[in-house]
Specification:
Distance between the termini: 44 Å
Oligomer: single chain
Helix content: 10-25%
Radius of gyration: 23 Å
Number of helices: 1
Strand content: over 45%
Largest sheet: 8 strands, antiparallel, barrel
Strand order of the largest sheet: 1-2-3-4-5-6-7-9
Amino acid sequence: MRNTFLLLIALLIALPQGVKAQRFEGVEFFGGYSYLQNNLGSTYSPFFLAPTAFGSNFALNGWQASITEKAADWIGLTQEFGGYYGTKNLAGYDNRFSTFSILSGPRFYYQGFKGVTPFVHALFGYEQTAIELGGQGLKATGSSYAMAFGGGLDAGPRRGLAMRVFQFDYYRPQLFGNSQNNWRLSVGLVYRIGGPRH
């Protein structure tokens, strides 16, 4: 009976250590360039302009940064920030656009390949867009929910510095009361702290 009790105690002590050894508990930082393709043709423009005044497609250039806390080597919670900027000529005037977004959600990784790590995610949050109409001194600001569904591919070690070869997302905000079907493409550097080395 005593030996059984000691064996049970030893198993209870060893079990958490074994579980802990399987946990990733790492943090991943990403920063880089991002390209956003807007479908502004589906958006009603402010200041009583025509619904398609800005055209069906409009490109914005900017940046993207994120922090992912990984509960295991295959899943993490991502907090993402993005800023995009550009101009669109309308009636001879350059109209300035600026967009800022904050998104959060789960990210899932596949660790079956050596040297590369594909991932997918579903992110939800907030977007704010400001439009300055050139030559008119008018400015409109709209804010709404936003969501992004997509994934990407990282190349490099699972700890330390790696490269995000690409991240592609279907991005859907709701600007001035109308949903958009946009997409975005991002590249940059990833730095990982904690987790396995290989």
